[in-house]
Each structure stands twice: as structure tokens, then as C-alpha cells.
Specification:
Elements lengths: L2 H26 L9 E12 L8 E11 L4 E16 L5 E18 L4 E17 L12 E15 L4 E12 L7 E14 L1
Length: 197
């Protein structure tokens, strides 16, 4: 089998795959996502605090699961673990500040075409702060605490299969610590996205 035949075969297979999945996805999402369907996002992030004494940002994980209540609005729950400050101290110990956000979120989807959509979300809930720090606090946080707070998100989903895709989102989180100024951080997320019928 020569190179031309292999390239032609791969091209034909890719064309048939695209032709088969795009109309099916279009039928599944005609007019936007359908109410009653479940939407899931799960993935990783780069998270960084934007307060005094914050060190380098680090990795985080997150999950969102919700139900479509209209063609554009989804209500659900999100949770995650974000390391927002990470540093190797002078004595060789690793210092980090981890935050566990648990929120109820409302998401508004704006469908661009059969395979792409933008979304905006707002959430509220609580933040569990888990510091493993030296002497210096990050922001005004130096002890473990649980505080109320909220977030806003903008994102983009690209659906490359009937019910699966990838998503990109930028989140901004804020909550008041026990004492001191508002604690804020951002998370840039990459998600695997899924719709269940």
C-alpha cells in the first residue's frame, strides 16, 4: 500500500466521521441545549491568588454537574480543589495554600453554532481554606477556616462528538476571611464536557 492510498483512506475516514457526527449533534442540540438534560464539566486548572504574599500559582481540579431548566439556563453544583499559592521555602519545605470551593451555580449558554457555545456563570457557596504555610500568611489567611463567598465565570465549549467536547473557562473567586481584606483568586480551567440525554 503506497503513501497516497494511506492518506486518501485517512482523509475519507475523517470526512465520514465528521459527516456522521455533525448532523447528529445538530439534531441533539437544535435550538440550544434541551431542558432536562444533564451537563457535566470536569478538568484541571491553573489557579493563583491575587493578594499580598501570594507565591506562584499551581494546579487545581474542578467538577460541575447541572440540569438544563431551559434551552439556555442550567442550574447545578460545582466543587474543586485549587492550590492558589505554592512555594519552596528557604529551609526546603513546600508551602501551599489550598482552597476547596463548593458552590451552587447558574450558567447561561449562548449557542454560536452546532458545535460551539459561550457561557457565563455565577455561583455562591462556601470556601474551605486549607493552609500549609510558614510564618507569613497569604493575604490575611493563616489558619484553616470556612467562609461564604462566590465566583463569576466566562467560558467556551467546543463539541467534537455527539455528546462530548472540551471547554475553556476563566473564573474569578472572592470571599472574606475571618479578619482582614477580601481574598481573591483566579482559575484558568480546561474541561472535558459531557451532555447526558
Amino acid at each position: 500500500m503506497n503513501t497516497r492510498s494511506i492518506v486518501t483512506g485517512i482523509g475519507a475516514a475523517m470526512f465520514l466521521f465528521a459527516a456522521a457526527t455533525t448532523p447528529a449533534y445538530g439534531q441533539a442540540t437544535a435550538g440550544g441545549a434541551v431542558s432536562g438534560r444533564s451537563v457535566f464539566h470536569i478538568g484541571g486548572s491553573f489557579s493563583k491568588a491575587t493578594v499580598d504574599n501570594a507565591e506562584s500559582g499551581f494546579f487545581g481540579v474542578g467538577f460541575f454537574g447541572g440540569k438544563m431548566i431551559t434551552h439556555n439556563i442550567c442550574l447545578g453544583v460545582s466543587a474543586g480543589y485549587d492550590i492558589v499559592s505554592y512555594n519552596k521555602s528557604d529551609n526546603g519545605n513546600y508551602e501551599r495554600l489550598g482552597i476547596i470551593p463548593v458552590q451552587i451555580k447558574a450558567v447561561y449558554f449562548l449557542r454560536l453554532n452546532e458545535m460551539m457555545q459561550l457561557y457565563a456563570a455565577a455561583g455562591g457557596g462556601f470556601y474551605r481554606v486549607v493552609p500549609h504555610l510558614g510564618v507569613e500568611p497569604v493575604g490575611d489567611i493563616h489558619t484553616t477556616e470556612t467562609r461564604p463567598g462566590g465566583s463569576v465565570t466566562i467560558g467556551f465549549d467546543y463539541w467534537f462528538l455527539l455528546t462530548s467536547g472540551i471547554g475553556f473557562a476563566l473564573e474569578y473567586h472572592a470571599f472574606p476571611p475571618d479578619d482582614g481584606d477580601l481574598f481573591t483568586y483566579y482559575a484558568a480551567r480546561v474541561d472535558y464536557t459531557l451532555v447526558r440525554f
